[in-house]
Amino acid sequence: MSQKTLKLVFFTTLALLAFAGNSVLCRLVLGQGLMDAAGFTSVRLIAGALMLVLLMALSKSAQSVSKQVITPRWQGIMGAVLLFIYAVCFSLAYLMLDTGSGALILFGVVQLTMLFSRLIGGYRAGCLEWLGVLLAFSGLSYLLWPALGTPSWTGFVLMLFSGVAWGLYTLAGQGSAQPLTDTTRNFLWSVPLALPLLLWVPGFEHWSVDGVILAVFSGALTSGLGYAIWYTVLPSLTATSAGVLQLSVPVLAAGGGVVFAGESLSQRLVLSAAAVLGGILLVMLTSQRQQV
């Protein structure tokens, strides 16, 4: 294995662990009432923006940073909007979902969003790919079927919006020529959107020190740095590879929820995960075979 391939594997693994880490951290903070969802989202995006601006300042001059990041661009604004929608819906959804269910719905929707984007772009799906889509949706339906411990429809809808936004954000990253600059611009311009959320905060006295620390950690490391790494590896991955790789995130997040958040791994989650991930994997492998 070449050194270039090893670097790609290493940084891709870091990005995937960061995605799973965000799910675990968000659930830890909100599930234990360490912060409210609006405050967590705001601190997360602000911390991510500060971390990325600092990284750019260390590698470039202040004038260069100002010219490349602060100057608004259409792509940067759209990236910021998608990032904000993903982050705020992600946090609100985790008020009603456990770590495994939330990550399963999020990345299931992400893959379907990427598939349908390809269809809109003129890609012709085969019967096996549609079978995979049907299997994935069946898994999600089973997960949400009325039963004890089943996630709420409100949580599902919020995570649905979050997944669509992240799927489009990922697709945009495949054309990124300057990953750090583009990610910094996205985070920086998401801050004005996030600041009004602080008006929803019931009272800053409800913020715990642990909650703020975890929110800053989530924003600066698993979000800001993690997403910059993801934008760095995306140009080296095909859309199919990027989709398949993200299928590991719900499993990582569910494992993290069991280990760090004391959650149980239910039979319903295992069966629905097998259906959703199996369906999406079928879609991705079939499309990859057609590209060869």
Briefly characterize the structure.
It is a multi-pass membrane protein. The protein is mainly alpha-helical. Helices cover 78% and strands 0% of the residues.
Describe it:
The chain has 292 residues and is mainly α. The chain has one domain (3-291). It is 78% helix and 0% strand. The protein is built from 12 helices and no strands. Helix 1 (3-31) crosses helix 5 (99-120), helix 4 crosses helix 8 and helix 6 packs antiparallel against helix 12 (267-291). The radius of gyration is 19 Å and the shape is globular. The two termini are 22 Å apart. The mean pLDDT is 80.
Low-confidence stretches: none
Number of strands: 0
**Class by SSE composition:** mainly alpha
What profile does the largest beta sheet have? none
Distance between the termini: 22 Å
Domain count, please report it: 1
Q: Please count the helical segments.
A: 12
| Percent of residues in helices | over 70%
Tell me the Rg in angstroms: 19 Å
**Beta-strand residue fraction:** under 5%
Order of helices and strands: HHHHHHHHHHHH
Topology readout:
Blueprint: H1 3-31, H2 37-59, H3 62-70, H4 74-93, H5 99-120, H6 127-144, H7 153-173, H8 179-194, H9 209-233, H10 239-246, H11 248-260, H12 267-291
Keywords: Cell membrane, Membrane, Transmembrane, Transmembrane helix
Domain EamA: 154-284
Subcellular location: Cell membrane
Q: What would the keywords be for this entry?
A:
single chain; 0% strand; membrane; 78% helix; 292 residues; globular; mainly alpha
